[in-house]
């Protein structure tokens, strides 16, 4: 399986690859693409996820030089042309559906206007209602990618493990691999003040049970206020706050429990 490195992120563009990694390897990633409020491909992997898959020879990470360059004038023209075509097509579809819906209630609208002393035909009311709303660039729905773009067929080089490691630390990578090997699902924990969120099952069906914060240097003291804040945070969101460290190639975990006196 070959994934793509773009802007220091390992990305999945193929629906089949994403499904395979999620079902068989418990790799979640995060949506980069979106069509309005609907998340879509590509999926960006955590550096720790990518390292794990690379070490197990499950994936290869490719770098496409042309994708690292700014878009050319031809690229911009093609993009803008595609956007205009999509917009016009969606406006046409919307108008047809809106016309169908209005025709079912047009008589009631005309009758209501007559009661107010406004005498207009059904056709006039229909045009007025259609002109009130349409699809714009801001509201149009972009198509969702299910396969890699054609540009991925260009010459590429494979990215070494060391390049991915630059985006994380040895401690984070080791902690992630240890938790993953225990059968957990793991996602980014930044929104809860940690490095990882740990689930007993797929996040679509389970809540996270642990917030993991990695301690990079075990020789440095952790201020008591930081421990209290982290422990209270875990309690407030009903999760266990866990400190993880790497010492002599051994992963150590310390759970912070908060009890109100």
UniProtKB/TrEMBL annotation:
One of its GO terms (molecular function) is nucleic acid binding. Its EC number is 4.6.1.16. Residues 2-61 form the TSEN34 N-terminal domain. Residues 171-246 form the tRNA intron endonuclease catalytic domain. Keywords: Lyase, tRNA processing. GO terms for biological process: tRNA-type intron splice site recognition and cleavage. Pfam families: tRNA_int_endo (PF01974), TSEN34_N (PF26577). One of its GO terms (cellular component) is nucleus. It catalyses: pretRNA = a 3'-half-tRNA molecule with a 5'-OH end + a 5'-half-tRNA molecule with a 2',3'-cyclic phosphate end + an intron with a 2',3'-cyclic phosphate and a 5'-hydroxyl terminus. Belongs to the tRNA-intron endonuclease family. This is tRNA-intron lyase. It comes from Photinus pyralis (Common eastern firefly). The lineage of its organism: Eukaryota, Metazoa, Ecdysozoa, Arthropoda, Hexapoda.
């Amino acid at each position: 399986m070959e994934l793509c490195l773009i802007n220091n992120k390992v990305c999945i563009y193929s629906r089949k690859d994403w499904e395979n990694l999620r079902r068989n390897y418990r790799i979640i990633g995060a949506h980069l693409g979106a069509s309005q409020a609907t998340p879509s491909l590509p999926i960006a992997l955590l550096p720790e996820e990518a390292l794990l898959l690379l070490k197990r020879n499950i994936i290869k990470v490719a770098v496409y030089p042309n994708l690292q360059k700014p878009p050319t004038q031809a690229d911009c023209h093609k993009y803008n042309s595609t956007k205009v075509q999509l917009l016009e097509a969606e406006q046409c579809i919307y108008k047809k559906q809106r016309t169908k819906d209005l025709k079912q209630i047009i008589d009631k609208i005309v009758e209501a206007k007559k009661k107010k002393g406004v005498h207009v035909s059904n056709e006039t009311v229909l045009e007025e209602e259609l002109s009130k709303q349409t699809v714009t660039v801001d509201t149009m729905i972009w198509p969702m990618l299910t396969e890699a773009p054609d540009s991925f067929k260009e010459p590429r080089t494979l990215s070494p493990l060391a390049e991915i490691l630059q985006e994380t630390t040895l401690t984070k990578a080791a902690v992630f691999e240890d938790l993953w090997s225990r059968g957990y699902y793991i996602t980014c924990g930044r929104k809860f003040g940690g490095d990882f969120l740990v689930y007993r099952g797929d996040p679509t069906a389970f809540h996270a049970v642990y917030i993991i914060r990695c301690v990079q240097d075990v020789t440095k003291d952790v201020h008591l206020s930081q421990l209290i804040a982290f422990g209270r945070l875990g309690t407030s969101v009903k999760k266990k706050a866990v400190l993880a460290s790497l010492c002599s190639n051994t992963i150590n975990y310390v759970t912070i429990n908060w009890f109100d006196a």
